Amino acid sequence: MGVQVCVIFAPSHAAYKHLTWLLHLGALGVFGVSLLDASIILLPVPGSTDLLILLLVANQGNPWLLAGAAISGSMLGAYLTWGAGKKGGETMLQRHVPKRYLKSITRWMKRNGVLTVSIAAVLPPPIPLLPFLLSAGALGLSLRSFLVSFFIARGARYALEAWLSAVYGRQVIRAWAQYLSGWSDVIIWSLLGLVVAAAIFGFWKYRRDKRRFASSKRAHAA
Question: Does 207 fall in a domain?
Answer without folding.
Answer: no
